[in-house]
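Observation: inputs received (chain + calcium ion).
Thought: call the complex predictor directly.
Action: predict_structure
Action Input:
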Amino acid sequence: MGADFHSRIHPVRQLAVLALLSLGLAACKTEKDPDQPTILGVPPVFAYLGVEYSYNFGAYGGEDILDYSLTNAPSWLALEDTSNKARQGIIMRGVPGLTGGSRGEADLGKTEGINLVTTDGRMAGAQPFDIDVKYNVMSLDAEPFTEGESPEIPASNREQCTLPDLETEGEHSVTINLYNDDGSVSGTRELTLPTRRVFVKVTLDQPSVTRVAVAFELLSDYDASSCDVGFSPPHQNCDHSASNAGDAILGTDIVGLGSNSSMPRDETGESELDYIDYELDEQGFYTRGVITLEPGITECYLPLEVVEDSFAEPVESLRLALTEVRSGLAGLGSGNGGVVTNLSIQDNEPVLSLETVNGGGRDTLNVGAVREYVARLSGDRDRDILRSSATPKTPPHVSNPSSLSSDWKTETGLRMTN
Ligand SMILES: [Ca+2]
Ligand SMILES: [Ca+2]
Ligand SMILES: [Ca+2]
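Observation:
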């Protein structure tokens, strides 16, 4: 009765048990004792450096208390001492790279034909399996940044580090070149500009049992000595040469930490983030540092600061690289060759466009005729605008909305709107 009821409710499970029984019998092809000790289970094929690996084997059969032993196992892997010997089954565990002699990367790779042997003193059962140890890979991910904006950190199912406060603005001082009409450098100017915090997501594939600290660095192809043909530095045709177009200037367009910024704090603002350290580069800007993921954390946020300048710029690109594991065990990419992700900064300067009074984008005008057009400036203007003219080779001119407006009105008969 009980069995009938059970079979109606759990026909699938009963089938599975039967299948396991027949598999177990098939595996031990010699003269069979039905009470042969048998191990159940298939341990995971992959293990990761610095990450706990554990598996609980089931067992049945045998006439007495079962004893277990591992053969051909990697040194990091061991059977757990069972205090309750009457229990059937056994747990094997270990941390590749750490347990069994802290062999680090020497534990990488595949071990084939590991055997878990169980015996009741008279008969033995065996369960062969393989384990392949891989790097616990760290990777980077970032959305495009927009000058003047701080993004939200999206929700995550992963174990997160303390979320950084991105709202608080920072401040950064830069020195820019001033140019004569021929593009030669006439002097420099110190500008102190607000910054907005952005972030790059740092993920660890698996939860590490130890703290993992990794060095990072901002990189850009921008090179002030890469001039247009016929020019030599310092010159505007070097600072803003064709080959530098679209490359962010580290320390000017973006930094890890602004020169006058306070260290990033947690979301409540109560304490400084303890997982990020910034370091100075050769130019004296904080464009590198170390990020530390505590044990178990698999997702963290590396705060950077985009300088909110008032230069009209194309979309600028740069890169963030993870360069070195300073402590713990993590792979920088699947082959541990390094991790690099592309970053981009979209400009937020107003864009000036001309249209007819009726909003048309095209018009025809007889020579000598006069007509009123609308110059439309996109974006908000709550301060002076540094207007750079249409071609990137000409110097940025400093002006402000009122003088721009009156200039345009008197000289061209245009009306400014916003
Ligand atoms: Ca910029
Ligand atoms: Ca801006
Ligand atoms: Ca800008």
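Thought: report the result.
Final Answer: Residues 65 and 87 are 8 Å apart (CA to CA). The pocket of calcium ion (ligand 2) is lined by residues 147-148, 308-310, 348-349 (CB under 6 Å).
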